[in-house]
Design brief:
The complex is a heterodimer of chains A (368) and B (148).
Chain A (H helix, E strand, L loop, with lengths): L7 E5 L11 E7 L2 E8 L7 H5 L7 H6 L6 H16 L5 H29 L5 H21 L8 E2 L2 E2 L7 H24 L2 H7 L7 H6 L5 H4 L7 H4 L20 H25 L19 E8 L4 E8 L7 E5 L1 H4 L4 H5 L4 H11 L3 H5 L1
Helix pairs in contact in A: 3-4, 4-5, 4-11, 4-14, 5-6, 6-11, 11-14
Chain B lengths: L6 H11 L4 E4 L4 E3 L4 H10 L7 E9 L4 E9 L4 E8 L8 E3 L8 H12 L2 E3 L25
Parallel strand pairs in B: 2-5, 6-7
Antiparallel strand pairs in B: 1-2, 3-4, 4-5
Classes of the chains: A alpha+beta (368), B alpha/beta (148).
Chain lengths: 368, 148
């Protein structure tokens, strides 16, 4: 005999540690199982796109830092590439290499956050998160050497980067590259084979690749579903056509494969940074002839890049003035949530939190 | 960039689907009539030569005398991108275009955001309500008539 119980509506968030910021989920439960879920967002909406219309093209870089605030460098990069395309600015080679180094380091930092907090969601209180935060700290120290800021970097500029890397940056970067593979091995030993992790993540939160493509889901989520789609490889921007890297693809499309893809991608990012160091050449880090206030000709531009969370891009419209007429972000965090309801229905509460964690969203980017 | 489909190429492809849909094109984009959008969108996704499986981005722009909706399309199998633009009628009263959600599920949140912040209505969207701002908020903040 089965007992039919009254559905219970539970508000998860907005102030809940597992919602990764100020996200609110209104979930209907039948007993332990989710029967319906609705997300309510906007608690962190600051109107970044409107604010951008009031600032010069260069000043908007500071706003992009505050969108996905655990991946500022890639936000800078996506925005600057759109500005350069719009204004027809050619970046200096050294500037491009420095942008790639900082973006790949940022990808590692973002994945570290994703993995650390995912473990926190799984109930592994403390240890894994502290490990990943320790390594992220090294990356933030490197960023501090580059530009003086740790989180809100504003490092990238039209035609290159704000300043060349100081001399003591390079030995610190080498030390990081030497140390990091061992640290990733450590996570794998600690996490990847852990029986509790496996039993809670394997085969949970499965979503078919066709559905993901139709719902515009990109990034590690899509690659964990067996789709070989990485913009760095398929539509290379900057100098990604001059570096070699593998694209980790998993077929299971469950929570565990979404976690593993991120671990493998960190190793590939280290490879890319290595090749950037080998190929970087002396020269100016940006073109001194590009003025601070640029006036791109009338028109529009959209350049997508492979951000840590998926396809990230800025659609800019210029009316010939000093600030963007329209600045629209393609936020992977928001769009990857499209199928959240379908993913959560039928899961128990504990699995719901984990599934939500493997999507890896950042509320600064969801709400902007 | 070789993967960006030129406006004229995309315009020719759309003319084959619906001979009256195209109203103009530029180097990298094509303008179509909103009325033709549901059929054109479905054909763009299903046609074997184009196969735009993914809707990358939905944008709305306020050009003061009219609103424009921009769809960035992406074909994973062909590695091509295409840009389709639509002019939502004349003037600023009740701009509307048909929704693309029946073709691409990815339009869901993006069209809701566009409605919330720009006030462009996507006809046929099953859940056309505000996304970021609260119900009861007056106006649409990304419009140009918001004073500085």
């Amino acid at each position: 005999m089965t007992l039919k119980s009254e559905p219970v509506i539970v508000n998860v968030g907005p102030q809940h540690p597992s919602t990764h910021g100020v996200m609110r989920l209104r979930v209907a439960f039948d007993g332990e199982l989710v029967t319906d879920a609705e997300m309510i967002i906007g608690y962190l909406h600051r109107g970044s796109e409107k604010l951008a219309e009031e600032r010069t093209f260069t000043q908007v870089v500071t706003l992009t830092d505050r969108m996905d605030y655990v991946a500022s460098m890639t936000n800078n990069q996506a925005y600057i590439l759109a500005v350069e395309k719009l204004a027809g600015i050619e970046p200096t080679p050294r500037g491009v290499w420095l942008r790639m180094i900082s973006a790949e380091l940022q990808r590692i930092a973002s994945h570290l956050i994703a993995i650390g907090f995912l473990m926190q969601d799984l109930g592994a209180m403390g240890t894994p998160l502290m490990y990943t935060m320790r390594e992220r700290e090294d990356i933030l120290d490197l960023f501090e050497l580059l530009c003086g800021a740790r989180i809100t970097n504003s490092y990238h500029r039209p035609s290159g980067v704000f300043q060349d890397a100081p001399a003591d940056f390079w030995p610190r970067l080498e030390a990081f590259l030497a140390e990091m593979p061992g640290r990733i091995d450590e996570y794998e030993q600690l996490i990847s084979g852990n029986e509790i992790i496996l039993s809670r993540m394997r085969g949970v939160g499965i979503i078919s690749p066709d559905e993901m493509i139709n719902a515009s889901i990109t990034g590690p989520m899509l690659r964990a579903g067996g789709v070989d789609w990485d913009l760095r490889h398929r539509q290379p921007y900057e100098y990604y056509d001059r570096v070699e890297f593998d694209r980790p693809i998993m077929d299971e499309s469950d929570n565990y494969s979404r976690y593993l893809v991120r671990v493998y991608e960190m190793r590939e990012s280290l490879k890319i940074v290595r090749q950037c160091i080998d190929q970087i050449e002396p020269g100016p880090a940006r073109d001194p002839d590009v003025p601070f206030v640029i006036r791109p000709p009338k028109g529009d531009a959209y350049v997508p890049i492979e951000g840590p969370k998926g396809e990230l891009g800025f659609y800019l419209v210029s009316d010939g003035g000093i600030s963007p007429y329209r600045c629209k972000v393609r936020p992977p965090s928001l769009i990857n949530l499209t199928l959240l309801r379908e993913m959560l229905i039928g899961l128990p509460m504990a699995a719901m939190i984990v599934t939500f964690g493997t999507v890896d969203i950042n509320m600064g980017e969801v709400d902007r | 960039m070789s993967w960006a489909m030129s406006g004229s190429e995309l315009a020719d492809a759309i003319r084959e689907i619906d001979s009256e849909a195209v109203t103009g094109h530029s180097d990298d984009a094509v303008w179509i009539t909103p009325a033709s959008w549901p059929d054109v969108a479905e054909s763009l996704r299903d046609s074997e030569s184009l196969s735009f499986e993914m809707l990358s981005l939905v944008t709305t722009v306020d050009y003061i005398d009219h609103f424009e909706v921009v769809y960035h399309l992406l074909s994973l199998s062909k590695n091509r991108t295409g840009v389709v633009k639509m002019r939502c009628g004349e003037g600023r009263i009740d701009p509307a275009v048909p929704t693309a959600i029946n073709v691409w599920r990815g339009a869901d949140l993006q069209e809701r955001e566009a409605y919330d912040l720009m006030g462009v209505h996507f006809d046929g969207h099953p859940n056309m309500k505000r996304l970021m701002l609260w119900e009861g908020f007056e106006g649409h903040p990304l419009r140009k008539d918001y004073l500085r």
